[in-house]
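Q: Could you fold this chain for me?
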Amino acid sequence: QVQLVESGGGLVQAGDSLRLSCASSEPTFSSYAVGWFRMVSAKEREFVAAVSWSGRTAYYADSVKGRFTISRDHAENTVALQMSNLKPEDTALYFCAATTRTFPDVSSWYDPLFYDSWGQGTQVTVSS
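A: Sure. Below is the predicted structure, expressed as structure tokens.
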């Protein structure tokens, strides 16, 4: 497992952009697949986006496709989530998660149970 620290959350207006960052000090972080999930109140964690260890493969929830972009910087040991055209329904606590597990199929990338390491989260609030 690796320690993860999210940053970049805040209060913005609808239509604005935010860039979240997930950082790790572990040199092995570059070998982990990383996902972003979000949670509203005490509900289950909802998949947002994920990127493979290489950065060449990415997946997005339908609700954010075309507005959010996930990317990683191996030199900086970070994974970013660029969020554009934010909507009030994007308001949530955003978590990054990492895993070295092999995903058996595409759907497993969307499942929080496949991720072993989690950060503490960063709050994103979008006002209308």
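A (continued): The mean pLDDT is 96.
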